[in-house]
Amino acid sequence: MLTAIEKNTRFIKQQAVALGFDHCGIARAVQLDADARRLEEWLHKGMHGSMHYMENYFDKRIDPRKLVDDAQSVITLLLNYYPAEQQHPQAPKVAKYAYGKDYHEVIKAKLNTLLLQMQEQIGEVSGRGFVDSAPVLERSWAQRSGLGWIGKNGNLIHKQAGSFFFIATLITNLPLEYDSPVGDYCGSCTRCLDACPTQALVKPGVVDGSRCISYYTIELKDMLIPNEMQGRFQDWMFGCDICQDVCPWNRFSKPNKTVEFVPIPEILNFSTRDWEALSEEAFREIFRYSPLKRAKHKGIQRNLKFIS
């Protein structure tokens, strides 16, 4: 005979799969003391560059109970974004997560549905869902809930599926069964550390965000990319997948099944000349639902000039 906690846990994991999530893990909501120390050191060293929002809500980042009253559980969900198709090899490169529609909207809708289903099935349940845009340490919670380990490239790696996943978090006041963390299986491999062309991976598991190609091509709002980075971007126009592409664990990556992540044809097929000729109006129309809109037309044009 299952207890209420066991029944609720099983229901949540079943519904997560039904909604299209690939993996679901659950951890007890506690303050992340070790992560707090690492985050404080990372910020103190300025590795967040101009991403000053990382300094905000420090107390909420390290304690989910400050985000949801009486929080008991942190549910972590993974959604695969590995594409079935790749870009033309001569095209300016776009990170795979941005091939399709903006994942924020896609995942937020799934989280809202899951919370509603929990309320309908279980009763009075409160919670909040987060997708990469709130003060939540998603990778730490994913690791705590047994969904993988933090690799030397700073990404969460799932032993059977690699690292091409979006991570979503649902914090709730519902007590549940908790999963156990898994070990670190990077071993002596240093492929990601060796492959990073800007030396953004300063040591295993630590990314200097202020040196990452993704930072320069997406986050950096100043129109000037430092001259010292000239010639290092390896044709990456928006984001970068180098440290994931070289990871041996990503040999297990399989194409995603989410319709919204089907690649936008222009991303697969545009040549450098096509991108350079793209008007701001056309950019807004083609990429109105794409993560590329975050860089804006002028950012994309700046990046193109820098890598040409």
Give an account of the 3D structure.
With 308 residues, the chain is an alpha+beta fold. It contains twelve helices and ten strands. The strands form four sheets. It has a four-stranded antiparallel β-sheet, sandwiched between helices. Strands 3-10 form a two-stranded parallel ribbon. Strands 5-6 form a two-stranded antiparallel sheet. Helix 1 packs antiparallel against helix 4.
Structure, briefly:
The protein is of the alpha+beta class and 308 residues long. It is 34% helix and 13% strand.
- Strand order in the largest sheet: 1-2-7-4
Strand content: 5-15%
- Helix count, per DSSP? 12
What order do the SSEs take from the amino end to the carboxyl end, as H and E?
HEHHEEHEHEEEHEEHEHHHHH
Helical fraction equals: 25-40%
Please tell me what the overall shape is: globular
Stretches where pLDDT is under 50 for at least 5 consecutive residues are: none
Distance between the termini: 65 Å
Number of strands: 10
Overall SS class = alpha+beta
Number of domains: 1
* Sheet having the most strands: 4 strands, antiparallel
Mean pLDDT: 95
Radius of gyration: 20 Å
